[in-house]
Amino acid sequence: MSVATLALRNLLRNRRRSLTTLLAMVIGAVAILLFGGYSGNINLGLQTSYVRNAGHLQIQHQDYFLYGSGNPAAYGIKSYASLIEVLRNDPELKPLLTVVTPTLSLGGIAGNFSAGVSRTVIGTGVWVSDQNKMQLWNEFDFPGEAKTLALTGTAGNAVVIGNGVARVLQLCAPLQLKNCPASQAKVNAGPAAPDDINALSQQAHAENPKPQSSALPQIELLAANVHGAPNVATLAVVKAQGFGIKELDDISMLLHLPQAQQLVYGQETPQVTAIVLQLKHSADLAKAQARINTLLGTTLKDQPLAVYDFATLHPSFGQITGMFTAIFSFISLLIGAIVLFTVGNTMSMAVMERTVEIGTLRAMGVRRNGIWRMFVCEGALLGLVGAVVGIVLALLLAWGINHAGLTWLPPGNIEPVPLTVRVWGETRMLLSTGLMLVVLAAISAWWPARRAARMNIVDALRHV
C-alpha cells in the first residue's frame, strides 16, 4: 500500500479523533480568512475614500507639505494651467490618468455678523466637475452609487461648510440641521458687519458681481492675500455637512476655485496650492510617481515642486491599516499555535495506541523512514482536508455576510456603508492560508513521527 493510502486508512479508522482535529483546523481557517477578508476590505475601502477625495498623487511646492498650512498663499504653484497640460499630454502618464485638477487651500475667519459670531476656518477651492468625476473612481467594485458635491450647479459665491462651523455661526435653523442644540452661553449680538469689512467686500465684488440667493443664509469670509492684506467675500451657504472627523467639521469649508483665488490673489495672477492626480489603477502609482519626478527634474524644473502619494499626505491610512495588519498577524499566530498543539497531540495519541502496529510494520521490513513518512503524511492529510473545508466554509459565510444587508461606519466616513468581507477573488490569501495549515500540520506530526520511527521492534511488539 502507498504511504498516502495507508495514512488515509489510519485517519478513517480513528474518525472521532480525526474529526475533532479537523474541526479545530476548520474553525481556525475560517477565522483567518474571514478576518483577513474584513481587514483587506477596510484597506481597500479607506484607499477608495482617500483616492476619491484627494487623488492618488498631489504635486505641491516642495515646502508646502511641511510649512504651507500656516500660509498657503506663500507656497502657490505658478502657471499651473500649463503644468496640467504637460501632465495630461505626457505620453507615459496619459494612459494612466483619469483626472488632473487644481485645488487651493486657504485659511481665514468666517463670520455671521448679523448674529455677532465668527470662527477660524480652513477652506478648499475646487473645480466641481473634476471633483465629481473623481467620485466615480471604484476600482475595487464597492457597492453604492457615487455622490456628487453639494456645490454642483451652484453660483460662484456658494460654499459648503462643516456641521461644526454651522453650529458656531448659529446657522442650524436656516440650514435645517438635526442634532444641533443651541449654545447655553449668552452671546452678545453685534452689528450686521463692521464698516471696514463691508467696504472690503463691496470693493472685491465691484468689477464682477456674483449672484446671491436671498433664500440662502449668508456668511462673510475674511482671508489674507499674498501681501498680508485682508480680503472679504460674502458667500451663500448651500449646505452644511459632516467631514468625517469632528475637528474637520469644526473648521472646514468647500468653495469654488475661482472664488478662493479671488480671495487669496485678488487681481493678481491666480495660483493653486496643489495639483491632484487620480489614476485608473492604484497599481500604477509607483510608475506614475517616478515619471512625475522625472518631469519635475526636466520639463517642469522651473518651479521647486514635489510629488506625494496619498499615504504620505494622510498618515492615518498607514496607522489604520497597520493596526488591522497587526491584529491579523496575531490571530494567524494564535491559530497556528492551536493547529500545532492539536495535530501534535493527535499524532502523539496515535503513536501510543498503534505501538503494536508500528512494531509489526517494522518486523515486516518497513524501514524507519517509511514509518516517519506515514505519520507525517497523516498530519499533512489532516491539514489539507481542514484547509479545503475551511476555505469552502469561509467562502459560503462571506457570501452570506455580503448579502445580509449589514452596514457599518468606516473611519473617516460620514455615512454607513455596506459591510462586506472580501474572500472570493483573494487568491493569494486563500492559497497562503491553505498552505500554512498543511505545513503546520505536517510540522506538528514531525516529532511524534520521529518518535514512532525510532521505536525498538521488540519493545513495540511486547504491547500485544
Structure characterization notes:
- With 464 residues, this protein is of the alpha+beta class.
- It is 51% helix and 16% strand.
- The strands form two sheets. A six-stranded mixed β-barrel has the order 2-3-7-4-6-5, surrounded by four helices.
- Strand 5 and strand 6 (230-241) form a beta hairpin.
- Helix 15 runs antiparallel to helix 16 (427-453).
- The longest helix has 40 residues, at 15-54.
- The chain is elongated.
- The model is unreliable at 207-212 (pLDDT under 50).
What attributes characterize this protein structure?
six-stranded mixed beta barrel; alpha+beta; 464 residues; 17 helices
Report helical residue fraction.
40-55%
- What proportion strand? 15-25%
Query: End-to-end distance, in Å?
Result: 23 Å
Run of helices and strands: HHEHHEEHEHHHEEHEHEHEHHHHEEHH
Mean pLDDT across the residues is: 84
Q: What is the approximate shape?
A: elongated
Q: Report the total helices.
A: 17
In short:
The protein has 464 residues and is an alpha+beta fold. The chain contains 17 helices and eleven strands.
Sequence-ordered SSE layout with sheet pairings:
Elements: H1 3-13, H2 15-54, E1 57-61, H3 64-67, H4 80-89, E2 97-112, E3 117-126, H5 128-134, E4 158-162, H6 163-168, H7 172-175, H8 195-204, E5 218-224, E6 230-241, H9 246-249, E7 252-256, H10 257-265, E8 274-279, H11 285-297, E9 305-309, H12 310-313, H13 315-353, H14 355-363, H15 368-402, E10 407-408, E11 417-418, H16 427-453, H17 457-461
Parallel strand pairs: 3-7, 4-6
Antiparallel strand pairs: 1-8, 1-9, 2-3, 2-5, 2-8, 4-7, 5-6, 10-11
Helix pairs in contact: 1-15, 2-13, 2-15, 2-16, 13-16, 15-16
